[in-house]
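worker-03 picked up job from queue 'complexes'. Input manifest follows; two sequence lines, order preserved.
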Amino acid sequence: MNEPQVVGMQPWLPWPFRLWRSWTEPAPAERLAALRIGLAMVLLVDVLTSYWPNLEFFFGPESLTRQPGLDPFAYYTSPPRWSWSLLRGLDQPNNFALILGLWGVVTVWALASSARPGMAGWAWTIATFLAVASFWTRLEGGDYPSDIAWQGGIGLGFVALAWCLAGFLCLWNGHRQHRRLSPAFLVPWIMTTLLLGLGIQRFVEEQETGALSWRLRMFFADWDQNLTVLRVAMLAWLTAIVGLLVGWRTRLMAVAVWVLANSFDNLNPFITYKGDVVRNILLFYLVISPCGAVWSVDRRLSRRPPGPTFIYPWVLRLIFLQMVFMYFFNGLYKLLGEHWRTGEALYFVLANPVRSRVSYAQFPVPFFVLQIFSTTVLVWELSFPLLVALRWTRIPALILGVLFHVGIGTSMELEFFSAYMLTMYLPLLPWEKLRRLDGAGGHSAFTKKENQIGEQLRL
Amino acid sequence: MASNSVPESQERWRVSQVCLGLFILGQVFFLAGNNILQFIQDTNELQDEDTVRLVSWLTLDLPKEKGPFRQLLQNLVRWEEATGQEQSWCLFAPGIDERFRFLDVEFHWPDGRPPVVLPSTNKPADLGRFFRSGQLRVRKYEAHLGVNYAIWEGETLEDARRRWRRLNQRLTHKQAEYLPCYLLSRWHDYQTQYPDCPTPGEIQLHVVSWDIPPPGSEPWFWKGPIHMAFARLRLNPDGSRNGAVQPYNPLSKQFDDLE
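worker-03 finished. Artifact:
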């Protein structure tokens, strides 16, 4: 019999979480993979049908987002907000903060990493390049009016710091591998050396001419104003979605899809809707979880022996918790509305031709039926936490949820909202039963063993 | 990707495992804290004073303008923004509109040629018979433009026009940045289809407002419409903007400057 395996990191959990089996016992990896595949499929259709055909109308220099001299949504990715869009360019304050934060995290990872220094080396190279480019581009903006020597000195100082750090990483990692220098960190050291050389040359030129030279803004700022860049970003997004769908370099693809989804959505908050929000939340969870453990190219290419695969369940529980909060608070807000309390709500929704899929005059649903539906939705949403907490009401509550989303998706034009919501239900289905198809087996033996672990943890 | 066989109970936890656990706890706290505090804050903005008092009493008057809970909510919102996990789950709630509107864009030329009217891509040709699919994103944008016009019970048409004038002034001011983006985008879209068409002198936004009848009305059909201009944007011959958007004045039937 093939040995069951658990993929991913087991989290330390404090009381009372460590006592709950649902938070500690490994869950079948197929459930997370189903979410990944379902979400990627919906997103692929979403991008191909709603973003791609309207790219120039939604984004670009003469679009709903920006026009010459008008930038009404710049506030959305500027302080004090922490929203960001890489497409705004490296000089934007939020992107600058994000990139420096990323650089800091990758630096700590590179210092601590001994298992896979090659990956850490490449990540540090990219993060450092972005940090230096962002730093230099930002210094060109009007946010730091000061004399040229001070301005150039700060930029040069930062790249000098990066160069010193690269040298230290090269020696430190080499020392840990009992070598003089680490081959994994030679590339970053060479890259920072080149950047330092460029920085010195630039600094000297600026002191001689008394003006900023080698302006970088044209390369690193306002990417959303360039249709070619937007098209390339959209193609990269599509490629990453396909990568996520088939599970090829899954973690990297999940990061790329999440970054690009946020980057496009945050350019113009007026064209996003709750379906996009649900999608971005789910993508965030895919980024931080081993969603390519099974049903993926990565799994096929990995050297792990065949056998049933499990993951630690925290990500599935967090998604479920998100779902509970979503429904419950929707119910609470509805309770505050008079139309919901009188049962008229769905009538006014379906009789509104801006929202409905077909004309109410053409298909007049009897008012009492809509009253029953309105009240059912209100009661179901408000009692959702209780219904899913009780074993015997859980499945009926979830079936009602699926019917609700199919119903509103059919009767109202909500584009992909219902489809994204239904992907949240995918991890609740027993996809592991499909294991028989690839002959993995071994589930019952694992269950017995994992129960033992659960018992130990409870003690 | 780390892979192990069946996990045994651990005596020593690695730093990364503790960090992951703390992250999970933080996420649970974020979901609960953000939704609860946001809900309490939103109830303060309701018009129903009894509900506001009730929620305020139930929550020990937590959501003050300043204070630790307000600060906590702000911090949670920052995390929400940075990670793209927007909460605020209030779909079709608390209130639901009893009115709706469609937008028409009109191109006017100074040489006296007849204006071109471009209805919204969301506007059905026949309100009584349609099937809609797609265009939700454009509809979301249009929901931020214009206003629903209605005549209140007991209000004369003259009083309504005076109120609409103030409304147009206030909302055009609010929409002054993104309304031109919409108008110019519609023009660029039209220009792509008709490249020989000269630049119009002005682009007007018109609103067509309807009321949804109370349930059970006989015969059943929407009440209205009230069709009125909302604002205009003047253009130079080279296509650049000629000044700011101007709100429509229903009393003088002219476009005024923003006050």
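worker-03 released lock.
Chain B touches chain A through 91 residues (CB under 8 Å).
The two ends of chain B are 62 Å apart (CA to CA).
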